[in-house]
Model the fold of this input.
Amino acid sequence: MDTSFFVAWMEEIATAVQAQRDHLTQLDAAIGDADHGSNLDRGFGEVRRALADSPPETPGSTLMLAGSTLIRKVGGASGPLYGTAFRQMGKSLGDVPDVSLAELSAALDAALAGVQKLGAAVEGDKTMVDALAPAVRALAQAVQEGVKPEDALSAVAAAAQEGARATIPLQARKGRASYLGSRSAGHEDPGAASTALVLSALRTAGFRTW
Amino acid sequence: MVGIVLISHSSQLAVEVAELAAQIGGRDVPIAAAGGTDDGRLGTSITKVADAIATVDQGDGVILLMDLGSAVLTAKTLLDEHPRPRVFLADAPFVEGAISALVTSGGGADVKAVLTAAEEARHIGKL
Done:
Protein backbone atom coordinates (compact mmCIF):
# COMPACT_ATOMS: atom_id res chain seq x y z
CA MET A 1 0.00 0.00 0.00
CA ASP A 2 1.76 3.15 -1.24
CA THR A 3 1.04 6.86 -0.90
CA SER A 4 -1.65 6.74 -3.60
CA PHE A 5 -3.50 4.09 -1.59
CA PHE A 6 -3.55 6.28 1.52
CA VAL A 7 -4.59 9.37 -0.44
CA ALA A 8 -7.37 7.24 -2.00
CA TRP A 9 -8.35 6.15 1.52
CA MET A 10 -8.81 9.78 2.60
CA GLU A 11 -10.81 10.54 -0.56
CA GLU A 12 -13.02 7.49 -0.04
CA ILE A 13 -13.63 8.56 3.56
CA ALA A 14 -14.58 12.07 2.41
CA THR A 15 -17.01 10.62 -0.13
CA ALA A 16 -18.56 8.17 2.35
CA VAL A 17 -18.90 10.77 5.10
CA GLN A 18 -20.50 13.22 2.69
CA ALA A 19 -23.00 10.57 1.54
CA GLN A 20 -23.78 9.56 5.14
CA ARG A 21 -23.69 13.06 6.58
CA ASP A 22 -27.38 13.29 7.39
CA HIS A 23 -27.48 9.74 8.75
CA LEU A 24 -24.58 10.48 11.13
CA THR A 25 -26.22 13.72 12.20
CA GLN A 26 -29.50 11.89 12.90
CA LEU A 27 -27.67 9.36 15.05
CA ASP A 28 -26.02 12.24 16.89
CA ALA A 29 -29.33 14.11 17.26
CA ALA A 30 -30.71 11.11 19.18
CA ILE A 31 -27.97 11.01 21.84
CA GLY A 32 -25.62 13.97 21.25
CA ASP A 33 -25.62 17.45 19.79
CA ALA A 34 -26.50 16.72 16.16
CA ASP A 35 -23.26 17.96 14.63
CA HIS A 36 -21.29 14.77 13.96
CA GLY A 37 -22.20 14.44 10.28
CA SER A 38 -21.60 18.08 9.41
CA ASN A 39 -18.40 18.26 11.49
CA LEU A 40 -16.87 15.21 9.83
CA ASP A 41 -18.03 16.27 6.38
CA ARG A 42 -16.37 19.65 6.84
CA GLY A 43 -13.25 18.03 8.32
CA PHE A 44 -12.66 15.45 5.59
CA GLY A 45 -13.48 18.04 2.92
CA GLU A 46 -10.61 20.09 4.40
CA VAL A 47 -8.41 16.97 4.39
CA ARG A 48 -9.13 16.46 0.69
CA ARG A 49 -8.19 20.10 0.00
CA ALA A 50 -5.03 19.92 2.10
CA LEU A 51 -3.84 16.78 0.28
CA ALA A 52 -4.52 18.40 -3.09
CA ASP A 53 -2.72 21.61 -2.10
CA SER A 54 0.43 19.91 -0.83
CA PRO A 55 0.61 16.32 -2.12
CA PRO A 56 2.40 14.20 0.47
CA GLU A 57 5.34 11.95 -0.46
CA THR A 58 4.83 9.03 1.89
CA PRO A 59 1.92 7.11 3.45
CA GLY A 60 3.01 8.39 6.87
CA SER A 61 3.04 12.05 5.84
CA THR A 62 -0.37 11.60 4.19
CA LEU A 63 -1.83 10.49 7.51
CA MET A 64 0.02 13.15 9.52
CA LEU A 65 -1.37 15.90 7.27
CA ALA A 66 -4.88 14.44 7.43
CA GLY A 67 -4.67 14.21 11.24
CA SER A 68 -3.39 17.76 11.73
CA THR A 69 -6.08 19.09 9.43
CA LEU A 70 -8.85 17.33 11.37
CA ILE A 71 -7.47 18.60 14.69
CA ARG A 72 -7.49 22.18 13.40
CA LYS A 73 -10.70 22.23 11.38
CA VAL A 74 -13.41 20.05 12.93
CA GLY A 75 -14.18 21.88 16.19
CA GLY A 76 -16.02 18.97 17.81
CA ALA A 77 -14.62 16.06 19.82
CA SER A 78 -14.23 14.01 16.63
CA GLY A 79 -11.46 16.37 15.45
CA PRO A 80 -8.91 15.61 18.17
CA LEU A 81 -9.97 11.94 18.27
CA TYR A 82 -9.72 11.15 14.55
CA GLY A 83 -6.81 13.58 14.23
CA THR A 84 -4.87 11.75 16.93
CA ALA A 85 -5.75 8.39 15.37
CA PHE A 86 -4.34 9.36 11.97
CA ARG A 87 -1.29 11.09 13.43
CA GLN A 88 -0.46 8.05 15.54
CA MET A 89 -0.80 5.89 12.41
CA GLY A 90 1.49 8.27 10.54
CA LYS A 91 4.11 8.19 13.29
CA SER A 92 3.93 4.40 13.38
CA LEU A 93 4.49 4.15 9.60
CA GLY A 94 7.44 6.55 9.61
CA ASP A 95 9.04 6.96 6.16
CA VAL A 96 8.03 3.56 4.77
CA PRO A 97 7.14 4.06 1.07
CA ASP A 98 5.11 0.88 0.69
CA VAL A 99 3.14 -0.33 3.70
CA SER A 100 2.68 -4.04 4.38
CA LEU A 101 -0.43 -5.45 6.03
CA ALA A 102 1.62 -6.10 9.17
CA GLU A 103 2.73 -2.45 9.22
CA LEU A 104 -0.85 -1.30 8.70
CA SER A 105 -1.88 -3.55 11.57
CA ALA A 106 0.74 -1.99 13.86
CA ALA A 107 -0.34 1.49 12.75
CA LEU A 108 -4.01 0.81 13.52
CA ASP A 109 -2.95 -0.53 16.90
CA ALA A 110 -1.15 2.79 17.53
CA ALA A 111 -4.29 4.67 16.45
CA LEU A 112 -6.39 2.75 18.97
CA ALA A 113 -3.84 3.38 21.73
CA GLY A 114 -3.83 7.11 20.90
CA VAL A 115 -7.61 7.37 20.91
CA GLN A 116 -7.84 5.51 24.21
CA LYS A 117 -5.14 7.63 25.83
CA LEU A 118 -6.89 10.83 24.76
CA GLY A 119 -10.51 9.87 25.43
CA ALA A 120 -9.97 7.31 28.21
CA ALA A 121 -12.68 5.07 26.71
CA VAL A 122 -12.65 1.28 26.85
CA GLU A 123 -14.73 -1.18 24.84
CA GLY A 124 -18.34 -1.18 25.94
CA ASP A 125 -18.43 2.57 26.72
CA LYS A 126 -20.45 3.19 23.52
CA THR A 127 -17.81 5.14 21.62
CA MET A 128 -15.68 4.86 18.48
CA VAL A 129 -13.49 2.39 20.38
CA ASP A 130 -16.28 -0.19 20.05
CA ALA A 131 -15.77 -0.18 16.26
CA LEU A 132 -12.02 0.44 16.20
CA ALA A 133 -10.87 -2.21 18.68
CA PRO A 134 -12.53 -5.23 16.95
CA ALA A 135 -11.21 -3.98 13.60
CA VAL A 136 -7.67 -3.82 14.99
CA ARG A 137 -8.04 -7.40 16.25
CA ALA A 138 -9.47 -8.56 12.91
CA LEU A 139 -6.49 -7.15 11.02
CA ALA A 140 -3.99 -8.65 13.45
CA GLN A 141 -5.64 -12.03 13.00
CA ALA A 142 -5.66 -11.67 9.21
CA VAL A 143 -1.94 -10.86 9.25
CA GLN A 144 -1.27 -13.88 11.42
CA GLU A 145 -3.25 -16.15 9.09
CA GLY A 146 -1.56 -14.67 6.03
CA VAL A 147 -4.79 -13.91 4.14
CA LYS A 148 -4.84 -11.80 0.97
CA PRO A 149 -4.87 -8.00 1.48
CA GLU A 150 -8.36 -7.52 0.01
CA ASP A 151 -9.76 -10.20 2.32
CA ALA A 152 -7.94 -8.68 5.27
CA LEU A 153 -9.45 -5.25 4.58
CA SER A 154 -12.89 -6.84 4.15
CA ALA A 155 -12.47 -8.45 7.57
CA VAL A 156 -11.53 -5.04 9.03
CA ALA A 157 -14.67 -3.44 7.56
CA ALA A 158 -16.92 -6.27 8.74
CA ALA A 159 -15.52 -6.17 12.28
CA ALA A 160 -15.94 -2.39 12.50
CA GLN A 161 -19.50 -2.49 11.20
CA GLU A 162 -20.44 -5.28 13.58
CA GLY A 163 -18.80 -3.37 16.45
CA ALA A 164 -20.78 -0.24 15.59
CA ARG A 165 -24.08 -2.15 15.45
CA ALA A 166 -23.30 -3.74 18.80
CA THR A 167 -23.31 -0.28 20.43
CA ILE A 168 -27.10 0.00 19.97
CA PRO A 169 -28.17 -1.59 23.28
CA LEU A 170 -25.30 -0.08 25.27
CA GLN A 171 -25.55 2.77 27.76
CA ALA A 172 -22.93 5.44 27.09
CA ARG A 173 -20.21 5.91 29.67
CA LYS A 174 -18.04 8.42 27.76
CA GLY A 175 -18.70 11.43 25.59
CA ARG A 176 -21.71 13.68 25.30
CA ALA A 177 -24.17 10.76 25.27
CA SER A 178 -23.09 9.76 28.78
CA TYR A 179 -25.05 12.74 30.13
CA LEU A 180 -28.22 10.96 28.98
CA GLY A 181 -27.66 7.90 31.18
CA SER A 182 -30.04 5.06 30.36
CA ARG A 183 -31.72 7.16 27.63
CA SER A 184 -28.62 6.63 25.48
CA ALA A 185 -29.46 2.92 25.10
CA GLY A 186 -31.31 1.89 21.93
CA HIS A 187 -29.32 4.12 19.56
CA GLU A 188 -26.22 3.35 17.51
CA ASP A 189 -23.28 5.44 18.66
CA PRO A 190 -22.47 8.05 15.98
CA GLY A 191 -18.72 7.85 16.62
CA ALA A 192 -18.73 4.08 16.22
CA ALA A 193 -20.85 4.44 13.06
CA SER A 194 -18.43 6.93 11.51
CA THR A 195 -15.46 4.77 12.51
CA ALA A 196 -17.07 1.90 10.59
CA LEU A 197 -17.33 4.21 7.55
CA VAL A 198 -13.69 5.28 7.90
CA LEU A 199 -12.42 1.71 8.16
CA SER A 200 -14.70 0.37 5.40
CA ALA A 201 -13.16 3.00 3.13
CA LEU A 202 -9.84 1.14 3.42
CA ARG A 203 -11.40 -1.64 1.38
CA THR A 204 -12.81 0.70 -1.27
CA ALA A 205 -9.43 2.42 -1.49
CA GLY A 206 -7.95 -1.01 -2.15
CA PHE A 207 -10.45 -1.68 -4.95
CA ARG A 208 -9.49 1.64 -6.50
CA THR A 209 -5.72 1.40 -6.35
CA TRP A 210 -4.96 -2.32 -6.72
CA MET B 1 1.78 36.00 37.44
CA VAL B 2 0.32 32.68 36.45
CA GLY B 3 -1.90 32.99 33.37
CA ILE B 4 -5.33 31.42 33.00
CA VAL B 5 -7.03 30.22 29.80
CA LEU B 6 -10.75 29.39 29.69
CA ILE B 7 -11.66 26.87 26.98
CA SER B 8 -15.33 26.41 26.21
CA HIS B 9 -17.58 25.26 23.38
CA SER B 10 -19.19 28.65 23.60
CA SER B 11 -17.32 31.84 22.83
CA GLN B 12 -19.66 33.88 25.03
CA LEU B 13 -19.47 31.45 27.94
CA ALA B 14 -15.66 31.66 28.01
CA VAL B 15 -15.67 35.46 27.73
CA GLU B 16 -18.29 35.91 30.46
CA VAL B 17 -16.60 33.54 32.91
CA ALA B 18 -13.35 35.45 32.36
CA GLU B 19 -15.19 38.70 33.06
CA LEU B 20 -16.85 37.31 36.19
CA ALA B 21 -13.54 36.00 37.55
CA ALA B 22 -11.80 39.32 36.86
CA GLN B 23 -14.58 41.24 38.59
CA ILE B 24 -14.16 39.14 41.71
CA GLY B 25 -10.41 38.60 41.71
CA GLY B 26 -9.03 41.70 40.07
CA ARG B 27 -7.87 42.73 36.65
CA ASP B 28 -4.12 42.29 37.09
CA VAL B 29 -4.09 38.57 36.42
CA PRO B 30 -3.62 37.56 32.78
CA ILE B 31 -6.72 35.64 31.70
CA ALA B 32 -7.90 34.81 28.18
CA ALA B 33 -10.99 33.20 26.69
CA ALA B 34 -10.75 30.54 23.97
CA GLY B 35 -14.33 29.63 23.12
CA GLY B 36 -16.04 28.42 19.97
CA THR B 37 -14.60 27.43 16.60
CA ASP B 38 -12.63 29.62 14.20
CA ASP B 39 -15.80 30.21 12.16
CA GLY B 40 -17.97 31.08 15.16
CA ARG B 41 -19.75 27.77 15.74
CA LEU B 42 -20.14 25.94 19.05
CA GLY B 43 -16.98 23.84 19.43
CA THR B 44 -13.29 24.26 20.12
CA SER B 45 -10.41 25.71 18.13
CA ILE B 46 -6.88 24.48 18.81
CA THR B 47 -5.58 27.69 17.20
CA LYS B 48 -7.58 29.85 19.62
CA VAL B 49 -6.29 27.82 22.55
CA ALA B 50 -2.65 28.13 21.42
CA ASP B 51 -3.07 31.87 20.85
CA ALA B 52 -4.71 32.34 24.27
CA ILE B 53 -1.83 30.54 26.00
CA ALA B 54 0.66 32.83 24.25
CA THR B 55 -1.35 35.88 25.34
CA VAL B 56 -1.36 35.07 29.06
CA ASP B 57 2.08 33.44 29.40
CA GLN B 58 4.26 35.85 31.40
CA GLY B 59 6.85 33.17 32.15
CA ASP B 60 5.33 31.98 35.44
CA GLY B 61 3.16 29.26 33.92
CA VAL B 62 -0.38 28.92 32.62
CA ILE B 63 -3.32 26.77 33.66
CA LEU B 64 -6.09 25.72 31.29
CA LEU B 65 -9.69 25.26 32.42
CA MET B 66 -12.06 23.37 30.10
CA ASP B 67 -15.82 22.91 30.11
CA LEU B 68 -16.42 19.50 28.50
CA GLY B 69 -16.08 17.21 25.48
CA SER B 70 -14.06 18.71 22.66
CA ALA B 71 -12.74 21.46 24.93
CA VAL B 72 -11.02 18.80 27.04
CA LEU B 73 -9.87 16.74 24.05
CA THR B 74 -8.53 19.77 22.17
CA ALA B 75 -6.54 20.98 25.18
CA LYS B 76 -5.11 17.50 25.78
CA THR B 77 -4.22 17.13 22.11
CA LEU B 78 -2.42 20.48 22.04
CA LEU B 79 -0.25 19.58 25.03
CA ASP B 80 0.38 16.05 23.71
CA GLU B 81 1.52 17.35 20.34
CA HIS B 82 3.40 20.38 21.65
CA PRO B 83 4.40 19.77 25.27
CA ARG B 84 4.87 22.98 27.25
CA PRO B 85 6.62 22.50 30.59
CA ARG B 86 4.82 25.29 32.46
CA VAL B 87 1.30 24.75 31.08
CA PHE B 88 -1.13 22.54 33.00
CA LEU B 89 -4.67 21.22 32.50
CA ALA B 90 -6.90 21.77 35.51
CA ASP B 91 -9.42 19.05 36.33
CA ALA B 92 -11.72 21.63 37.84
CA PRO B 93 -15.23 23.10 37.73
CA PHE B 94 -15.24 25.77 35.02
CA VAL B 95 -16.68 28.77 36.87
CA GLU B 96 -15.57 28.15 40.44
CA GLY B 97 -12.18 26.89 39.25
CA ALA B 98 -11.60 30.04 37.22
CA ILE B 99 -12.39 32.29 40.17
CA SER B 100 -10.20 30.32 42.59
CA ALA B 101 -7.34 30.23 40.10
CA LEU B 102 -7.52 33.93 39.39
CA VAL B 103 -7.66 34.94 43.05
CA THR B 104 -4.75 32.62 43.87
CA SER B 105 -2.65 33.83 40.95
CA GLY B 106 -3.36 37.43 41.95
CA GLY B 107 -1.89 36.67 45.38
CA GLY B 108 1.41 35.79 43.74
CA ALA B 109 1.21 32.00 44.04
CA ASP B 110 3.22 29.70 41.75
CA VAL B 111 1.63 27.63 38.99
CA LYS B 112 1.30 24.44 41.09
CA ALA B 113 -0.53 26.36 43.83
CA VAL B 114 -2.85 27.97 41.27
CA LEU B 115 -3.56 24.56 39.75
CA THR B 116 -4.34 23.10 43.18
CA ALA B 117 -6.62 26.03 44.02
CA ALA B 118 -8.59 25.52 40.80
CA GLU B 119 -8.95 21.78 41.36
CA GLU B 120 -9.93 22.13 45.02
CA ALA B 121 -12.75 24.49 44.05
CA ARG B 122 -14.86 21.39 43.42
CA HIS B 123 -14.92 20.70 47.18
CA ILE B 124 -16.35 24.07 48.19
CA GLY B 125 -19.97 23.39 49.10
CA LYS B 126 -22.82 25.72 48.22
CA LEU B 127 -25.43 24.60 50.73
